[in-house]
Design a protein that fits this description.
The complex is a heterodimer of chains A (448) and B (434).
Chain A lengths: L3 H6 L2 H10 L21 E5 L7 H7 L3 E3 L8 E7 L10 H10 L3 E12 L10 H20 L5 E7 L8 H11 L10 E4 L17 E5 L4 H12 L3 E6 L4 H10 L3 E4 L7 H13 L2 E6 L14 H25 L2 E10 L3 H4 L5 H23 L3 E7 L5 H4 L3 H9 L9 H12 L10 E4 L8
Parallel strand pairs in A: 1-2, 1-3, 3-4, 4-5, 5-6, 7-8, 7-10, 8-9, 10-11, 11-12, 12-13
Helix pairs in contact in A: 7-15, 9-10, 10-12
Chain B lengths: L4 E7 L3 E2 L9 H16 L8 E4 L11 H8 L8 E3 L6 H14 L5 E8 L10 H12 L3 H9 L22 H11 L4 H20 L25 H5 L3 E3 L9 E2 L7 E10 L1 H6 L6 E10 L12 H12 L9 E4 L4 H12 L1 H8 L19 H4 L6 H20 L3 E9 L3 E9 L5
Parallel strand pairs in B: 3-4, 3-5, 10-11
Antiparallel strand pairs in B: 1-8, 1-9, 2-8, 5-8, 6-7, 9-12, 11-12
The chains are: A alpha/beta (448), B alpha+beta (434).
InterPro entries (chain B): 3-ketoacyl-CoA_Thiolase, Thiolase, Thiolase-like, Thiolase_C, Thiolase_N
Pfam families (chain B): Thiolase_C, Thiolase_N
EC number (chain B): 2.3.1.9
Chain lengths: 448, 434
Amino acid sequence: MKDSYAQIVNSSVGKKVAGALGLPQPVELRRYAPGQDLLNDRKVLVVGGQSADGLAETLLDWNLEVRRHPESRTRYGAIIADFTDAATPADLQNGALAVGAALRSLGTCGRVIVLGRSTDHEDDESSPELVATQKAVEGFMRSLAHEMRKGSTCNLLKLAPELGPEHESVQGPLKFLLSARSAYISGQPLSVDPAKPHTVEADAPVDGKVAVVTGAARGIGEAIVRRLHDDGAELILVDVPAAGEALSKVANSVNGVALQLDITQKDAGSKIAETARKHFGHLDIVIHNAGITRDKMLANMDENKWGSVLAVNLASQLAMNRQLLDSGALGPNPRVVSLASTSGIAGNRGQTNYGASKAGIIGMVSAMAVDFAQAGGTVNAVAPGFIETEMTKAMPTVTREVARRLNSLQQGGKPEDVAQAVGFLASNAAAGINGQTLRVCGQSMVGA
Amino acid sequence: MSQAYVLGGNRIPFARSNGAYASSSNLEMLTTAFDGLAARYGLAGQPLGEVAAGAVLKHSKDFNLTREAVLGSAFESSTPAYDVQQACATGLETVWGLSNKIRLGQMDSAVAGGVDSASDAPIVVSEGLRRSLLELARAKTLKQRLAAVSKLRPADIKPAAPTTGEPRTGLSMGEHQAITTAAWEISREDQDELALASHKNLAAAYERGFFDDLLTGFRGLGKDNNLRADSTLEKLGGLNPVFGRNLPEEATMTAGNSTPLTDGASAVLLGNREWADDHQLTPLARVVDAQTAAVDFVQGEEGLLMAPAYAVPRLLERNNLELKDFDYYEIHEAFASTVLCHLKAWESEEFAREKLGRQTAVGSIDRSKLNVNGSSLAAGHPFAATGGRIVATLAKQLHESAQETGKAQRGLISVCAAGGLGVTMILEADQPTR
């Protein structure tokens, strides 16, 4: 929907008034378009020791100019800060201050990518110093993200111990975070493990893949369908029969196949597998997007409101994932992406049922990561924050306006932003990401 | 000769008239039915042999209704189309005609359908007004114009209300059927029981998700809104008769055991086996044969809706089948008593002798195989859309049943229509190859 406030503060008079009063000044985010340059400004400052040297070649391949030292009177499209070698708190200072010195040179909708280490591996015997230092890198990134201006974002890639920043498994996630596809993602950590196959295709990352999207008739589901279609996938669109009219319109517009199905049916997963097998031979990508809200304070909650939300949002996904794994219909590198919510992370008043179901999703993807890894694939979640949809359009004006501004980008996200994150996790570019939940919330302070 | 198969179907939920679809036109509903079919089977932008559909209550502006619906739908725009109009048999007739073209090898695929809106019905100006307006249009001088206008009478302003009455008798279909019902001595209880079974069967089919791939939601409806899953014999028994109240016999036909006026649309996908294979579609059932008949109801020789009682024996004879040789029967429930009259006629030796010229009765059927997924009494009856509903529903049932039993399954369709018409058809699901 229209963000009137953003329009006003981006007019010449509005800009002055908002600046003088210290009001939020959201800028229009740079969003993905096929064939566009990776960054607004081609120059990338790479901060860090020797381990960062290998990155230069990758960045040059992406048509970027690499700088290892700050230059005066220049503008950077991105700053990449490599802390993968940091093992003690003292190792952080130089890099952190170098980023700080360059921040004023970061252009509109610029990117800061922090590279660190993941330290929670099973066979890992990391020292307390290393664990503390790498956790400090995460804290640094989160606070820096709050300081970003003019639509810029700051995110962290936590690399597995054996991965150098130049490793192929890192390139996909790095390119995604640099690109306009990650416009509404900020303040987020993502762990990257070595994995195959990995690609860093920019314009058709899921070319030829067969994907199913539930709740596909409207809103975020429809945006995911269009994203995956534009990114090259064949689609099966699932929604309840009552939404059939809208579902068939979306399906026909992407030459997809509509499957009307109540996903809480016992055999929903088998029916999806059967449809995929019949029309396309197999299934590569599963997007669990269908979800409902039945908000009530817990004191007023009834069996129906609690039960239906848990059944649709959580139990159905557990059952479908199990059936899909058992069906034999999945391709060699299956990708599952579930829609969680920031309400599932921080909770939300009036949403004990919804919050429980969405937190359950975060647990589910974490627990099923092993099962899908054994099948050659991944399972992850995306947790949207305030997204401009029909649902948020129905919110009371003041509540909506507050929710919209209380994030580092000072604006609501678009369904397209969620779809981009889903599309990334559904692609082989994200082969090294498994069992995780990626927030698409502009670093929201509500439901944080 | 090649074979024609039912490959799938789609309809919008049927809605009681002047309700959920009151502001939807035939064109909009038919287009939506086509779009849902295209979406279900991935047919957007795919070439099709031909599309045929029709409506009973049709505006004159809809002279090319089906072609217009194709152009507005996701179907490839170069798909040819034509309209059919044969009262309530329209839908079944389109399936018949198109499947014959497929069997003759003239095309490999087709979509048959039908639509009707009793809500958005044409309103016709009176005959007097129409004549005056035409004369006015032809007039060249002021004098001629005045002469044309001067013939208008106040009564001419009143429009002719839409009616389902028979042009030659002036009687409504219900009144016609009431005469037949009385003649065949069909009891109120039997009619109510048949109506109840229709509701129970339709509700159960929805309950098990049977219609998930036969139907596309429309205007917020996910299922037929005439369906009364909680209906009982007591509730049905409490309704007052609405037809046959002027007859000497007891009036038995109520709003509960007669179909209501309904809005809706349906479509059926047909194709030969090669086309089905090329499009990763499963043939559900083969169109085996069909037979039409008509009766002289004008002189009172036979009941208005009795033609299927004649068509079925001819169809059976040509295919060397007996009435009991079917796994499922779909007899359109225009009224509960219509179905019961047909069944009684087939069981009657007298009817066989005097009307059919046979020595023995046609036979009886196992009632547990009749309209097992509900029929028009529960779903409603948007005239031209009913044939498509029945064909798709039966084809899916036959296929499912063949998969479960491992045996070929045969089904009989019978649809009565205004004008003393009836169309009947045999569908067969082949034995599954394992």
